[in-house]
Structure formats: structure tokens, C-alpha cells
């Protein structure tokens, strides 16, 4: 009996060591993603989805749909320093459609780009053909306490408006939704118990801009969601930190903005653009996940 106990203890230690070693190797064999976010590949991904006929980027390599906002609005912003010609073309095209179809910009993403922001529920609308918008035209305002993205969008909006107490309150509500894996808000269950990568990006962006807290786990998880071949970032993932979606321009753009803290107009929090997530923190997050996986393996072994 004593020998069996020692054998089980040894097995537990061995399993933990194996899983931790795999994580510490800084490679996810299932996704091929590198735990250090590669912004160059992300830029390439966005640029590769540009269609000169439309003067816009499509949703992703598989979906021939062109979202004026948020996709092209965000892409035109992040590509300014990487491919100014494409950025300028997208900006001109967005302006053209706005004027031609008398469109009114309404969306929470306005808070990131120093534009008017709207926080009501969003409706996807076709402008013409394959050109679409996401219009925040709902009758009810969404609350910070319900949705992580709204919490971070509003935190940034209030912060820029000088409403510090409201900004901090919304930030803390959003950060409290992080369960160690992702942002678990009211959309989590209806979305098939999937986590949204862009909400992790918004957490990092809000942290960069307001300085209310750190979101070091955000870039680590986002890096696992980056496709190592295309550079695009997957929109959703499961509790096992594996993608359950396609990549797209919107999520990839937000990931770039999260990674590049100085991509925004200066705020009271100064960010060093050369700073990246510290390897010890990434490793600790990996070890935490690895330990959980080891426990699951041991439980299965003992059944």
C-alpha cells in the first residue's frame, strides 16, 4: 500500500513537471502561437486583407465583407505607421460612404479614437452590397456591470472626459470579470461559453490609457490566440486556451493597439512603447494553467 502511494505521488509530480516544462518552452503545439505577440505579422495580416477595388479591408481571408466600423476604422488607425497609403485610402473610403449614404457614426469604439462614443446595443446593417456597419442604435444603454467590452470602453470614455471616479468604477467592474482565463460577462453563456479575445485586448488598452490597473495576463492570452502563419488573431477561445473561431481584422487591430501603448493620443499615463510583457509573468500564468491541466490528468488517472 505504501509503495502504491509513493508511486501515485511520483506520478503526480512527473505529470506536473511535464506540463510545466511544455508551457515553459513558450510554444503552444496545438495552435503554433508564440507567447510573445508578433505585431509585424499582425500588421501584415491586416494589410493582406486590403482590397484595392473597395479601398477597404475585408473581415478576414474567408469572409468577403467590408465593415466600415469597426474593422476599417480600426485598421485605418493602426496602419498609419505601417502602410500609410492603405490607411489613407481606407479613411477616404469611409468618408465617401458616410457622405454618400448619410451615415451617422454610432459605436462604443469611438472612445478609443477620440470620437463621439455610443453605448447602446449594436445592430449589424448592410450599407450596400458587401459593405456593412455595426450601428449602436439600440434603445437601451449597456452597463459596465454587464459586459466587459462596455466596461472598458466606458472607462476610457469617462477618463478622457475627466470623470475619474466613473472611469475607475467601470474599469474595476470589467477587470473583476476576468476569471483567470478570460472575461466572463453576460455574453459568455449565450456565446456558447466562449471567451472573446477582443475583450482581453480592450482590458489591456484601458490599462494602458488610464493606469488604473495592470492587465499582464491579457497580452499573454492574446499571444496564444495569434495564428503563427497569418498573424491574425482568433476572435474566440475556450477554457483550454485553444481558439474556437476564425481570425479577423477587428480583433487583430485591437490586439495591435493593446500591444502598442503609445498608439493613442497621450494621457496622464505614459507608456514605454518598447516595453513588452515580462517573461516571468508569462511563465507564472503558464505554470498556473499547467498546474490545472496536471490536476485534471491525475484525476482521470485515478478513476
Secondary structure: elements and pairs:
Layout: H1 2-24, H2 39-48, E1 50-51, E2 56-57, E3 66-67, H3 68-78, H4 84-100, E4 123-128, E5 131-135, H5 148-160, H6 164-176, E6 195-196, H7 197-210, H8 216-224, E7 233-234, E8 236-237, E9 247-248, H9 249-259, H10 279-302
Parallel strand pairs: 3-5
Antiparallel strand pairs: 1-2, 4-5, 6-8, 7-9
Description:
The chain is mostly helical. It contains ten helices and nine strands. The strands form four sheets. A three-stranded mixed beta sheet has the order 3-5-4. A two-stranded antiparallel ribbon has the order 1-2. The two termini are 17 Å apart. The model is unreliable at 1-34 and 262-303 (pLDDT under 50).
Keywords for this entry:
disordered N terminus; mainly alpha; 303 residues; three-stranded mixed β-sheet; 9 strands; 48% helix; two-stranded antiparallel ribbon; disordered C terminus
